[in-house]
Amino acid sequence: MKRSTLAVALICLGAAMPAAAQFRKPEDAIKHRQSVMTLQGYYAGQILAMANGRAAFDPQLAADNAEILVTLTRLAWVGFVEGTDKGETNAKPEIWKERARFDDTAKKLQDDVAKLNTAAKTGKLDQIKAAVGAMGQTCKSCHDNFKRE
Question: Is 91 left (phi over 0), alpha (psi -120 to 50) or beta?
Fold first, then answer.
């Protein structure tokens, strides 16, 4: 799928999220959030590879991926609904026990990705490195606190 097509599809999906938040089965919500997290890892991973020098720096690719991440970081959280703490999931019970803290972490990630998006639009690798580092710390914090490994 072309990046532009994927971006449009994600934006449309994001606009429809209030209706889509009503999953028929808990398994559907779990699959949704796992799929979104996989996509987040893919797009963030490409930017991280450029920032760490493991991949050639492509300012346009970094900007495109950051833009996609803005949408993705809004999509996963609707899948953390009651009843999705069981089944094939790595979600820790702390998500539901410490919901405010979990939601704050989700909001921080969205804020960090917005900053990464702004940095990526400059095309300056040093600004991207700083922003992707902050985003990575938030990702790590969430995984450490709320994900079984």
Answer: beta
The answer to whether residues 16 and 56 touch, using CB atoms and an 8 Å cutoff, is no
58 residue type, one letter: D
Full pLDDT tens readout for the chain, 149 residues: 456 556 555 555 554 455 345 799 999 999 999 999 999 999 999 999 999 999 999 999 999 999 999 999 999 899 999 899 998 999 999 999 999 999 999 999 999 999 999 999 999 999 999 999 999 999 999 999 999 98
Chain length of the chain: 149
- What are the structural domains, with CATH classification, of the chain? 27-146 (1.20.120.10)
Query: What SS3 state is found at 2?
Result: coil
pTM above 0.70, yes or no: yes
CA atoms within 13 A on the CB side of 75: 25
